[in-house]
Amino acid sequence: MKAKNFGYYIEFYRNIVEGSHHLNLEKIASMLEYEKDDWMLWYILGYTLYDAGEYLEAIKAFKNALELNKDFHLASFFLEQSVLMHIVNFLDNRFIDEGDLLDVLNFVGENLSRMSIRIEDIFDRPFGAIDLRKIDSMVLKAYTSIPESFIYGGLSMINLFKTINLIINGEFDDAVEVTKYGLRYCYDALSKSKDEDYRKMMERFHELFFDVLKIAFKRGFNKTEIINDYVELFNELAR
Questions:
Q1: Dihedrals φ, ψ of 205, to 5°?
Q2: Distance (Å, rounded) from C-alpha 134 to C-alpha 46?
């Protein structure tokens, strides 16, 4: 984050709010030609692409932000959200086979850490090891004013896919740990949201965690049967 670019950060945020994504994409691309080490620029590029529904491109930008600032917790969250939204679009209203599910799990493995980021880090230290007192208040407000229920729900959902990925790879201890966070954040999303449709969705995700674990306990180390059961579970949801 560079003090001389604060004005641009605020301008780019306004463009996102107004839906003028193309203005950001053009300007940020030109700035990154000589400002490749500005992690906030990479983050704003990622957030612009995320808001425009370009999730694969957003993932690349968020990864660049994190390479420059590995403790940038807000970028970690939106990287995970971009992965989630890409998977949701992939699975939405379609029947999948074993190959499709393995593609999803490989995608999770390539783009996400195996553990959950903590909600406390996102709210208390969104930019990592950065002195928040030195950050312009407009910038801080723009990039941390995200609804709690949205963050809790997003973390819960992506942890479901992490859990499946870990189980299929036989990493049951890690899967249990990720599930603990997933269930905790699912409960928090339910308690903090008043939107009935959102609550119903989170209630289903709450059930899915237990469905996923039941399959693992039932099948033990039989990877083929576990994958078949997960394919059947997702196809039931798509019906």
A1: -65, -35
A2: 23
